[in-house]
Specification:
The structure is a single chain. With 217 residues, this protein is α/β, with parallel strands linked by helices. 37% of the residues lie in helices and 17% in strands. It has a single domain, classed as Rossmann fold (3-Layer(aba) Sandwich), CATH 3.40.50.450. It contains 8 helices and 7 strands, in the order H-E-H-E-H-E-H-E-E-H-E-H-E-H-H. Strands 1-5-4-3-2-6-7 form a 7-stranded parallel sheet, with helices on both faces. Helix 2 packs parallel to helix 5 and helix 5 packs across helix 6. The model has no long low-confidence stretch (mean pLDDT 93).
Amino acid sequence: MIPVSTFRQFIGRIKLWWRGKNHVVGWNMPPEEAVSFIRRRGKVVLTFYGYSGMGYEDEDGMLRLAQEVLAQYRPEKTLVVSGATKVGIGAVYPLAKSIGFETAGIVTTRSLKDTERISEAVDHICFIPDDQWGGTLPESDELSPTSRAMVDCSDILVGIGGGEISQAEMLEGKKQGKPIQYFPAEMNHQTAIRQAQKKGLPPPESFSAPADDVFGK
């Protein structure tokens, strides 16, 4: 019997293929292959990190910051990368496309279970086999395959808020000596409260990003 997760990923592939809006570079790419593809584009890789499913309390403010960052780069020489989904920081994709940037996404194969969240404004998508959404591996400082590909392909890291996964990726980028621009931003309050309730936890005491303490000073 085919595992349910495998079946859902198969259906997700069909849905993306039928939609025909994205070039899927690979469905099960090792991190090294994804990085190699991104590098072969021959452009400066500008990667945006931030909240994903949690969203932003002030999404318009986030987009204004992103636009200010994008204005510092030439579209014909820069590739904009993020996590391929359209929620949260993924709202940067249509903004970048409207200005003329080529876009790419690196995302875990877990995203194939809900392809409606994949942005149509991503030119190229690299799906990485990963048991988690990103961040560090359990009881380790090593990044998961998806996060490793995200950091290793990046020339410049731009963080606008972001949760623990984004923090782990930016910390690794800092360790590798890559330039980082960081802007504090709050997660969506209602979404954060609902997520806490689902987990049986009290409401968050703060809606600020974990990375604020490291990069927000």
